[in-house]
Amino acid sequence: MDKLKAIQYFLAAAQSGSLSAAARQQGVSLQAVAKLVSALEAELGATLFQRGSRGLQLTADGAQYAEACAPLVAQLQAADDGLRQARQRPQGTLVVGGTPFLLQHCIVPTLSAFHASYPDLTLDLRAVLHLEETAAKDCDLLLLHGWFEAGSWVRRELPVMAQVTAATPDYWKRQGFPRHPRDLADHNCLSYRNPYGKLLDLWRYRQAGPQGEVIEEVVVRGWLNSNHRDNLLALALDHGGVMRIAPATAQADLASGRLVAALLDWEMMDPPPLAMYFRPELRRTLRLRVFADFAAAHCAELAQVTNAKGQASADGRPAWHQGNSRRASSWLSHR
User: Fold this and answer.
1) So what's the pLDDT on residue 84?
2) How far apart are CA 256 and CA 158, in angstroms?
């Protein structure tokens, strides 16, 4: 028995939940996969799968074995790639997960240029909000907006994308243009709910004053909250409210005047940090390196599209981010 091949077939079946799907993925016959998986079970003296009408389910032994084998196979693949990459162009498939609006507005528009440079590399984009969600485990690299513990992932911090307070000219004309952050208390402010489920209804602003730094904290209210930034943007563009937004992700709307930024003499505090996460065993593979460098360079360019300032660190969560409360503003009553 080719044990390495058997383990590869086993892991493919575990991931896909089907021997036939594993066979298609590996480019072999169903019989070849079934034979080697059965031989592996016989050698181990353990049943790795429960077979039923709903496909394959890992047994407790199978789950333990898959968890132990997956990083070893990945390391072997990385070693193979490392030997080849000096003489080959990057190829194969790279699974990239990320915050949906970040992928849509910052990464996807650049991919034609990336493909022109690396035509043998296939990208598989996945929507991922949180480092700990199940979908993240199937990704080679993640681009995430927010404060996350890296855990077993390698983290590469990217430049912060500062945020501004924006609405349409019609909205500002109808409701009044804010001259001070506290004016926002009288506006319909559209708040984002982050991947931890916390509503970001505390908008903090900072300004240098003659007596030192001034910080204004505004508890905002509005009739639409969402965990998807584009829902908030759609209502804002329909003259429905005010939102905080990174100019890097709304360049066309700001440049055309469809959105107008306010309070530009104030720094909007607590912009979520942007970071890249990848598996330690894959860090030296050529396909991951070229995409990581490309994405990092592009994000650095996007961070320069505005004069707005913003500071954040993936390790430096703001105080309001701590605890289990569902609203950032709850922190004000407990500090």
Assistant:
1) 64
2) 27
Q: Is the whole model's pTM more than 0.85, yes or no? A: no
Q: Which two tokens stand for residue 265?
A: 């003499």
Q: Is the four-CA dihedral 249, 155, 68, 282 of positive or negative sign?
A: positive
User: How far apart are the C-alpha atoms of 194 and 40, rounded to whole Å?
Assistant: 44
Residue among 212, 216, 312, 223 nearest 263 (CA): 216
Architecture of domain 92-160+273-302: 3-Layer(aba) Sandwich (3.40)
CATH class of 164-270: alpha beta
Element holding 95 (H helix, E strand): strand 92-98
What are the strands, taking DSSP E only, across 168-266?
189-192, 202-209, 212-219, 225-226, 242-245, 260-262
Q: What is the pLDDT of residues 150-207, one digit of tens each?
A: 888 999 988 888 899 999 999 999 999 999 999 999 999 999 998 888 999 999 999 9
Radius of gyration (C-alpha) of the chain in whole angstroms: 24
For the record, the structure tokens of 118 come out as 């690396």
312 to each of 77, 167, 261, 270, how far by Cα in Å? 35, 24, 21, 6
